[in-house]
Amino acid sequence: SDVGSQKERVVTEEEWLQKWEMGNIGFHKEQEHPLLQKYLDVLLNGRSGLRIFFPLCGKAVEMKWLADMGHSIVGVEISEQAVKEFFSEHSLPYCEEPVPEISGAKMFQSTSGNISLFCCSIYDLSSSIVGKFDGVWDRGALVAVNPCDRQRYASLMINLVEKNSSYLLVTVSYDPNKHKGPPFYVPESEIKSLFG
Ligand code: SAH
């Protein structure tokens, strides 16, 4: 298919913040994603106590679900509203602290310590700040990234994972001439060239 119609599209950070303010968050789901339930074994691969990364996390309920299974969760999200709603909707006490390496960024951490959400742009992160991960749940993340930023996003993600990690990626398949996105249509061939 022709993805030309989406290639130039840019959604600014300000527009994302506005979506949260307006409650225009149709992407948020109250139930754990059925594909995460289905492929949980692939993500865990027999391991316990993993460090799992949620890029562009919103207030994804799967973060609480995996934390309750004993994993430690790190997310990144530009909307502070989203991060605060996550903790309040799950009645999780948290503390808030600056991130010295990133000007203007804050880290919100559950008091129990197993969920840490960075409030900043994902492009501000590096493995020296957040470490490396055993698993990634990428839903509404690669497909939400502006098409012009995909290469940068993929390179960063590759840098943030351990050698023996599992990366679950959810994409959407549709005719890109019929919707402007996000979520954007990312063809399988592009995923292969981005992640190798
Ligand atoms: N993964 C979540 C949210 C998907 S929507 C879920 O499954 O529900 C994409 C989210 O990415 C939005 O909440 C938006 O505010 C956030 N976002 C967009 N650009 C970002 C960036 N550069 N860095 C961090 N978060 C970003």
Automatic annotation (TrEMBL):
Q: What is its EC number?
A: 2.1.1.67
The reaction(s) this protein catalyses:
S-adenosyl-L-methionine + a thiopurine = S-adenosyl-L-homocysteine + a thiopurine S-methylether
Set out the biological process GO terms recorded for this chain's protein.
methylation
What keywords sit in the KW lines? Answer: Cytoplasm, Methyltransferase, S-adenosyl-L-methionine, Transferase
Which EC main class describes this enzyme?
transferase
Asked if the record carries the keyword Transferase, the reply is: yes
Q: Return the Gene3D superfamilies for the record.
A: Vaccinia Virus protein VP39
Q: Where in the cell is it found?
A: Cytoplasm
- What GO molecular function annotations does the UniProt record carry, in alphabetical order? thiopurine S-methyltransferase activity
Q: Which domain of life is it from?
A: Eukaryota
What is the similarity comment for this entry? Belongs to the class I-like SAM-binding methyltransferase superfamily. TPMT family.
Q: What name is this protein filed under?
A: thiopurine S-methyltransferase
Q: Which organism is it from?
A: Certhia brachydactyla
Q: Which gene encodes it?
A: Tpmt
